[in-house]
């Protein structure tokens, strides 16, 4: 189990590091990860890149105690479905004391290691989240 | 044409371990904290490394100075804990802060002074007009071998400096380096922990290079300690910088703000640069700062820095060094959790 | 379109079948099914087999050909198709088989399901199961399969007041039922305390809220209804076969406490069958996790949204209750050999409608429903059957 491979990871670096998605100028809807065709507008799609701020709200969450090999080192850790301020949702880890995460908690993005391709593989960097009111 | 600091940012992980806790595990009953003048050190989270720290510090620098990252033409990252032996940290930083592709990058290593070497190199390219802005970073998640004296102080943290010619918050008036081939501390390729020469790391290494670089700069510029408001020295522990300051004629008050090692330990390539950032956090226009780094192997880079008016336009929106050091943010670990975080447990 | 009936059924014992390979398991279910239907190899027109991940579990793809070969049907060169929709592979195999017969393309068709999960480590099995979720945007950032269901549970509890005890009641009931089922992996009763005190997997789901890793196979034989009596005295008619999809990632759903795929498949199924929800006498639903059963009974329309926990607590869903759910023991007690589950659900409904469910018998069962879900609701299958 190596989570991903070098080209597969590289292809999504703008999404992993900087939450680059898309915005349909026609209907004003935002998408993450990026989409070429807007499901609302289809042929009338006017899609442009959008870099999400990364700030959002926790929709739901869980504290994972049993993880796969790749994440064993980090347990227990908190996983959440986060609604970004601009609208779309994503799944991500929230680095915080479990007591500090609730439905409705506001979060902001941080840069962390998401995982590694084993001892010899590349390191997968990306975005996790912390409660917005955590200082520093 | 003057060149210098346009913006800066730091990042220090939130975990700490007390020096006494480490001493407890190894049965060291001497008063280690007082002997070293270090009480706790920072510990990275399991998903942090020198790259993530470099990114957070440089993102803070970008945010603080409201820098357009596409203006950055060079990124040099200094560390002795780059996670890859081959594959640069700097390209990951570039991608993460939003530079475009007309960029040059390289990773630096010179023990604890890799970050200041990066600043010197950026100054060169910027002064020559070959790039618009440069980013120089010192970042480390340094390791000390379990049970070794270095374990008390080897810590994690980083600082990033945006170097340019315009809108300077602080001009780097001049620098002077003193370098010799001195094997006081080293780590062979593939080894997890460094070796050091014990007391050999004192006089022939730290003190010789710091004092020579400092005196060299003062002679070159015809200045003396009284001409400075602040001084920052490399901080392998809380005693050496106090002693070298005294030797050179700087006062305890001058080095006070920049002395961060008692609370966060030695962040290696981040050490002098975090101390400098802590000083810039409180500095006023017209203040002058004398900063000297030290890297084992060995060498020292001494800088004379003049704070400009623009520093007042900067503050706000980005954590200060003291915010990263404040108690209510920090989480203390016992030795077992510390070992897990530092990857000292073989899986 | 012709009416289709089930003329024969078979199911292997579910569990950790160390002595048996995937090929052995298929025979364990297929041979009894053929005997039950009184058919021989020459009668079979086509084979559909649900299998989620032969590749990840036993490094074997081309499962369609493999199963035909094991069944001795390769020499007859019958068309054999492996079908995959993660945990709904079995239900989807059944639907494909139904469509083959209903359309007139084939007459007698086997719909089977099989999964051999215990030849790899638990960690590898968990990782293989995670491929039912969104690998790039859920698993890569640290989601596990239980974690995704756990997040639906967390929001369901927040919004509707569902409690951990109510979730545990689902496990209690299903283990009680499974204890009476010969094919079930587990023959043990559990209590609410035992469930809640079992180790936490992904908060709020404990170990005993989760279905296990299991080996197993099941098979049903289909024929056009107008000739079914030639093969068996107790054919079971398929009144509806419906399927729906939804976004792969849970975070992209309209409402993460509702599996819209179940809602749409159910709507289509009830319309096809021309009946109402209250006419269903029993249902096998997808309880990969206890919360799964609670969502299912809401989304299938047995109770209002948000009332699922209360229904479990008040015994509405036990054998003898208003709507017996998972009389077989569900995925929770029988185990969940992924590709086989959808077919095993049909096996249980048929047994019940034939009156052959022994101690688990739902009195007077006339119409039954089988509900099979892929991933955290990316696919849903609903079948309705009657005596």
| SS element count, helices of chain C | 15
CATH superfamily of the largest domain in chain C: Thiolase/Chalcone synthase
Number of helices of chain A: 2
Written as H for each helix and E for each strand, in order along the chain, the element string of chain C is EHEHHEHEHHHHHEEEHEHEHHHHEE
Number of domains of chain C: 2
Strand order of the largest sheet of chain A: 6-5-4-7-8
As residue ranges, the low-confidence spans of chain C are none
Give the distance, in angstroms, between the N- and C-terminal Cα atoms of chain C. Answer: 20 Å
Largest sheet of chain A: 5 strands, antiparallel
Radius of gyration of chain C: 19 Å
What oligomeric state is this? heterotrimer
Strand order of the largest sheet of chain C: 3-2-4-7-1-8-11-10-9
Briefly note the structural class of the backbone of chain A. Answer: mainly beta
Concise account of the structure shown:
Chain A has 136 residues and is mainly beta. Chain A has helices spanning 6-11, 13-18, and strands at residues 20-24, 29-31, 47-51, 56-64, 77-84, 89-94, 106-116, 123-131.
